[in-house]
Amino acid sequence: MRLTMLTASAALMLAASTLATSAQDTVSAWRLFVADHGEPVVRAIDLPTGDEIGAFPLASPATLYTTESKAAVYAVQGAGNRVSVISSGLAFEDHGDHGDLEVSDPALLDVTLEDERPVHFVAHDGEVALFFDGSGVVQVVRESALLAGESAPRTFTTDAPHHGVAAPVGAHVLVTRPNADDPKALPVGIDVLDADGEQIGELHECPDLHGEATSGHTLAIACAAGILFVDEGSPEPQIEFVAYTDDLPEGKVTTLLGGVGLKYWLGNYGADRVAIIDPADEVPFRLVDLPSRRVHFAIDPARAGFAYVLTEDGVLNEIDIVAGTISRTLEVTQPYSMDGEWSLPRPRIAVAGSEIAVTDPLNSMIHVVSTESFALDRDIAVQGMPYNIVALGGSGESH
After folding, report:
1. 221, 191, 194, 216: which is closest to 204 by C-alpha?
2. From residue 216, how far is each of 6, 59, 177, 284, 345 by CA, in Å?
3. What share of the chain is helix, strand, coil (3-state, %, to 5)?
């Protein structure tokens, strides 16, 4: 009798397991969001098929950003004086031993952040901060509020309009201080503000401030003579300055990307070099020489030790972060010279899982490269001049 009861119990468990398996399937979805260079529109593209699954009108051409949640794309429209929010249609939920993914259509949300000439967008700890160069105003808001259609940000005002940036760090906000002698020049440093907008401590000097990125829980900010590293602390953020070493050639970092998986930063250093930055290393700044001038670069969030740089000869260069060398190369586009205005239509890179998407605006194309073979996998035709691009996606269980 006991043996029979155990057998029946096992049968019930097997049946329950079968029902659970049938009720939850693993799904994968990857989407590209592409802003046109000349037209005020963002197109959503299903990466596996190359099909356009949405087109969203804007007030002006946009630079695109996203956050760790992958829930939305933020279209920063400098000439349109607004930031629009596009739902990615991808909802990820962490359940510890697995994650769920709910897939729906992307959509332009009925919420915007508005002021004069938005430029810098920074996301940290579930909040986003926008700096409006034309007014010197900072707006900080929780991403969850924006996704719920609410736009009631905390607002801070700097001493003068300038090309600045703000970053939420815990209960504080870091805000650039303009150059008092010439606000059109780059900022002179960072002020730490509390929740009421009151300054805490003294100015953290950072002449010619330009460029910031987060790796792990540390924010890095580029200055003329080195990098400021900011960690959340109590009662206020902990800020350390690491100067460029004497053995470096003349130059500085003005654009930063933060590593995922490995804690490091990748920055430009002159027109034909990139810098691998790790303040904990005996050699905090390692330079990688490029075959020609840099057009755009991106880190690989899935393969933690790799990044990619497209150079003006149309070649995609894979950077081995640990070795500090170029590991593979592939000619992807025609040459795109870096001579001329900075805003000319040139390729941009986004990494989507095991694929790299490279926009080719002059040929109305996106080239898709496999990270495994480092060979061209396919081309996706896109209307207009595909320019700025972000990739969102992943896998999860669908119930």
Report:
1. 191
2. 49, 34, 25, 17, 32
3. 10, 50, 40
Q: Where are the alpha helices (DSSP H) in the chain?
A: 2-23, 143-147
Judge residue 98's burial from the number of C-beta atoms within 10 Å of its C-beta, 0-12 exposed, 13-18 middle, 19 or more buried: exposed
Q: What is the CATH architecture of 115-289?
A: 7 Propeller (2.130)
- Interior CA angle at 258 toward 341 and 235, to 5°? 120
**Domain boundaries of the chain, sorted by first residue:** 115-289
Tell me which residue has tokens 């956050």: 67
Q: How far apart are CA 385 and CA 31, in angstroms?
A: 18
- The CA radius of gyration of the chain, in Å to the nearest whole number, is 23
pLDDT, tens digit, for every residue of 371-391? 999 999 999 999 999 999 999
Give per-residue pLDDT as tens, 270-296: 999 999 999 999 999 999 999 999 999
pTM for this entry: 0.91
- pLDDT tens string 76-135: 999 999 999 999 999 987 655 557 899 999 999 999 999 999 999 999 889 999 999 999
Going by their DSSP bridges, the two strands 256-258 and 238-243 should be labelled as unpaired
